[in-house]
User: Fold this.
Amino acid sequence: MVVQTESFVMLSIVLFVLGAMGVLLRRNAIMVFMSIELMLNAANLALVAFARYWGNETGQLFVFFVITVAAAEVAVGLALIVAIFRSKRSINIDELHEMKG
Amino acid sequence: MTEVWLFIIAGALAVAAAVMMLLSENAVHSALFLIVTMVCIALLFLMLDSPFLAMIQITVYAGAIMVLFLFVIMLLGAEKLGTADPGPEKSRFRWFTPVALSLALALLFSIGLVTIQGNIDAQEPPVADPTVRVVNVSNSGPVDVYVGSLLLADDLAFGQSTSFASVPVGEYTVSVRPASGGETTAVFDAVAAESTNIVAHGPADEAPGIALFLQDMRPLANEGDGRITIFNAKADSTNVAVVETDTYNTADGSYSFVRVQNLAFGFTSILELPNGDVSWRFLNDGDGEQIIAELFDEELRRDSSNLIVLADEVLPAGTVRTLPLVVTAPTAAQFGSPRAIGYSLFTEFLLPFQVLGLLLLAAMVGVIVLTQREIKPVKKIQQRRKVSRPLTSVITAQVGQEVTEDAPRLNAPATAGEAEPVK
Amino acid sequence: MAYYPQLVSLIILIPAIGAFINIFWGARLGEKWVGTVATVASALAFVIAVLLFVYLEGSGYEAVVINPPIFDGWIQIPAGEVVIPWQQRVDTLSSTMMLIITGIGTLIHVYSISYMHGDARFHRYFAYLNMFLAFMLVLVTANNFLMMFVGWEGVGLCSFLLIGFWFDKAHGVGWRNTMAANKAMLLNRIGDFGVVMSVLIMFWTFGTTDYFRPAEIVNVHLAEEAAHAAEAAHSEEGAVAAEGEAANKPGDVVLAQEGEGEGAAAEEAHGEEHSTPGVVYVNNDHIETDQLGVFGQAERFLDEGRVIDIGPVQLPFSTWLTIMTLFLVLGVTGKSAQIPLFTWLPDAMAGPTPASALIHAATMVTAGVYIMVRSNVLFYYAPVTSFVVAMIGALTALVAGFIAMGQWDIKRVLAYSTVSQLGFMVAAVGIGAYAAAIFHLVTHAFFKALLFLGSGSVIHAMEHGHHHAHSHGHGHDDEHHGDDHHDAHEEEFDPQDMRNMGGLRRKMPLTFITYLFGTLALAGIFPFAGFWSKDEILADSWVAGFDNNNLAGYIVFIILLMAAAFTAFYMWRQIVLVFFGKPRTEAAEHAPESSRLITIPLVILGFFSLGIGFMNTPSYVLGLDNIFGAHLFTDRLEYSVSKAHASEFNLLIALGATALAVAAMFLANNIYRRSAIIEARRDPLEMLPTTAPFWSLANARMYWDAFYSRVFARPFTRIAYFLSDVVDWRFLHDYFHDVVIWKGFNAAAQGLSKPVDLGVIDGAVNGVGRVFGWLSSQLRQIQTGYVRTYALSLLVGVVLVILVILLPLLQRG
Assistant:
């Protein structure tokens, strides 16, 4: 094991934080969505790293599930975005605040 | 060191692409940068012994999902949307960016600190428990086998075997108790990640003897091969030779391909063979070329570790014959290989897998419902019914004058559906 | 044979089912089916009554007590050890009553089918009739006073319903009918109060209301006689008769049946409560006192001279006996229409005539006589009560007979006649002639039902005739019209007024002949039924007075003789007015003979009016006892009426009474044949100065009703008016409710609502609400609606959680 697990975890944290920044700072809903995907990938990376470290395949199976769920999520999320765009002609999340209390 | 460099390059590329993704104004560019990140992550997966996930990452994520993203971006024409013209909202979120940045940094540093401080790699990774199984080739009737206080086999008859059971690491006393009474014990040191066979053997009128030997259950060097461990448990202490049946030379009665020679009582011999059938003869090595047992077209399963125990079986008639008892168990799969993941999916994770299937189904339905355009019911076209009076017109035509009188009738509304509103 | 008595529960159930069917589905069934259902129910009950009669004949008249299965524990109060079973008693007395009720009842059902034809509430009428039968049979088959009271009240209810049956007739008639029904109900309530008191005292005294317990022997005298006769026969047969230590000991008289050692059997039987097979008890000495019924206990108590405490009152048992019987007599005066409560019965003729015949002549009104005869033991030992009863009965007989002479309404005459005849029966009970009372009850049931049905036939015919005359004018044929309407006549024509009749003899010969039979029976002319029963009462009172020196006997004898003369007089007056002479109105002129459904019951009843008297022929009269047997009925009755006795025939009294009756009839004939005065709608007696005051007294019903209305009804109404108008309405409602409660409540509510409710409670509640409203309005600002703020709060949460979880780990590691 030449490269330490630690390094993978650090990389994954960096990617995760970058994704979080994207979610927080971008206004385009699709961009937010892609940032979420980035965060998922970061988490996947950590999972796989730990799986190898523990010699346990469960982590890899989780990654498999995460990827599948992400696929479903992307489909539904994009459908939502399409639907929102149809009605509001915009996907700027700052213009969507109907949930204001 | 190439691995380190590879990690550094791939990691740096991934981070750089992620940053570019965040910064680029054009959503299409962002998506392309994200693809780069994902491919880098797939490379890292490969480095982490997960070839299967790496392939999925590239095909499903970088391929299918990102294609979907690009498609939607192009469909909506949303490349530039949400970037320009922050408008009046901008002032409102002036505080937002610094707060978000500082929080993200706090997150980064806290987890990073823990990761570095926790010194993950200094910790011992756990190892697998030792496993043990019992094969009974003792003629003294069914036996109960205890490993320590654990009842490993209950009432195990001749020729039967158990599957591997894991026990904690430690020293155990193996105890074989025939149903007829008596007990034979042996001391057994269970070592982590090792698989041990306990073979009870012996003639009918004696207490069974115990033979302990390791079985190599590790993944095979070449996937698809099979491993065979031959153990000689013949009580008459004959040495055994194993030969390929097909190589029998009729001229001199010898075998051109001898697999094992001179296997004494209590010894094992391990062979690794490609997948296929085997036809072997077991010869009495000491007494000329006498065939004492034969395997014909025995299937050698791939990725399995087979055990062949040569034992004497006392038949009801009183005669004794040599029985080659074959016990098969799959070897451990290569870590992270599609076989390993598929095996887990179909055993341990079958229920989550099915739930996942349902989730995907729900997602499909959801997508259809969300994107469906509302179908408005077709309005019935209201039309005044036309009434013709063919008979009167015919009569009028024939008579030459109007034969009908105008009956008083109600004034119909000018056009249907536009009746005057009631005031 | 042994299971026949079990049928007695069906005798109640079948009419009840008939009533049930008719009340719920009668309107849909149509007249034909309603009549059929009701009549069949009644006829089935009659068949059962006959079967029970046959059974009793075969079993030596021994009483049977039946526990019908469903009502097993009717009233059970375990805490108070009160167990009042729903038991039915089949004995000679109840069997007699059952036969009369169901037999005459069935005939009246048949009659009613024709009589009530076309009535709007036809099905309801028959439901009531069947219900009446059921309740009446409950009354007579009961084995305890409480169950009897159920029937007693039930028949009272049916009577009320049937009296007021035409409550909706026009021209105030319906109102009069309603008032008549109310009157009957109210006066009966007074009587029922007496019955309830009597039963309560009885229960307090004896701890039971059963007449007799099933194991009891009713008539010890008879049983001992039979035992001795059997023993004598046994000895004569040559069997070794035990020298009978047991038999000679008084109080332990037992008789072993053949094949058993008598002494041993006696020893065994001694002290045992239940009869052992093979041992026949001839008295009740083996039964504990508290295991006996009311009558058995009463005799024991009298023997002991026991003193009874009821609450704080401590009196000897004989006094309590007098009190309880007097209360019972109050009930009897109500139900059997005696002085002072008799005035409801003449008014009760407002109901349909067949119902009057069944309820107010033949059966229900005799319930009082029945219950007195049933309690003959009590009355036998209560001389004061017996005297009072004799006086009431005799006076009622005389007074009602007198009033009957001055009435014009054909049914009213019969009603007073009924009262008078009931007086005869009550007087008979008073002088101890229980068998004679029941005998008269039976004969009277037949001929009075006959007379009522005959009068109904006449009234029916008069209505027809009237309708006919007015719808067709003169010169019509006597074609029968089926669809008459009872309340369709708008003229003030009274079809019941005898002044409107006359000469119906030729118009309705069958009715006339049967009516004549009834009249002769009622007047007591040999050989009609009334002769025998009335003569027996007179003979008994003679014996009571002149042989036993009983004061009541003298009085009763003389008064009843006068009443008998009155009876003959007013009955013949009626015959003359109705059937003889010339028709006085067009209605009478055109009255047709009634249909067959009406005349057939008349003929049957006429036959019985002629012949039923022979069932109790006294000895030594013209050798009749050789044909019919001597006082069979009385002998039979003695098995259930232990104090009953047969009377000696007294030729002198019989001849004298008959002569008096015939004379009275001749007198009436002479007076009323002068129809000229009657055509002026006056009575000949009214014209004679000597008789005029008496006649007007009789015509005014001796001012009895007027007296009641002055003394009781009007003051009562005034008080009620005062209570309702002044106390209830003006004081309670106007002042107390409106002023005190309403305004006070309002004031209090005002006081409470403003400061307390609005100020404190609402203020507190609203204040809390406002606080939360303010809080939420502040909190909702958090909910910006912008996704990024939500994401940021998520991130904040994540950072916090990680700090909380991981920092301690850091310190440790």
User: Anything to note?
Assistant: Residues 786-813 of chain C form one domain.
